[in-house]
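Structure, all two chains, one model.
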Amino acid sequence: DQQVKQNSPSLSVQEGRISILNCDYTNSMFDYFLWYKKYPAEGPTFLISISSIKDKNEDGRFTVFLNKSAKHLSLHIVPSQPGDSAVYFCAASEGGSLGNLIFGKGTKLSVKP
Amino acid sequence: GAVVSQHPSRVICKSGTSVKIECRSLDFQATTMFWYRQFPKQSLMLMATSNEGSKATYEQGVEKDKFLINHASLTLSTLTVTSAHPEDSSFYICSARGWGGVYNEQFFGPGTRLTVL
């Protein structure tokens, strides 16, 4: 059973608009969440993370929101740029940043000029 | 900082041969390295975790005799796929984690595409 779910395999957004990528999890023991960006035939690149003691973390155009009661997190990209087009993976771990990562299947974001 | 390299980036081999993939942390010391594999349109699946100087810990369902992992130094880990078969064809990605500050996160290598004929 998948512990980290990204139910939207793809998302298309117009340049300059907001991109919202969603992620749900089932394991209530997860206490650390991350988003990675991945281009084809490359390894994932770390974007942003959030600890379960927070509900929001912001870094430039990227903001991650965590709703623990709903076991849901989202990544907001504002404004979206064509260079943001990639596959975005949500990951979660127990034991903070030192825990093993459990990944979702990813959402392919396409930002159209 | 926090650059992880993998070599080779792509390898094609015959069934029954062994293939070695190297993972290096270039600008930090990796106390822990991880090996993942990814099938098309699937998530990254953790295969094993290795700490420098000790035996790797394999995830359930991963054959330790088939996927040999060596973490001989704080900057190098190797994955050897022994007696490779076509079903081993996949994208293998390593990651490395250091200690303290930004290096607490996992930093991923660019991946190795293995094709077994």
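Chain B touches chain A through 25 residues (CB under 8 Å).
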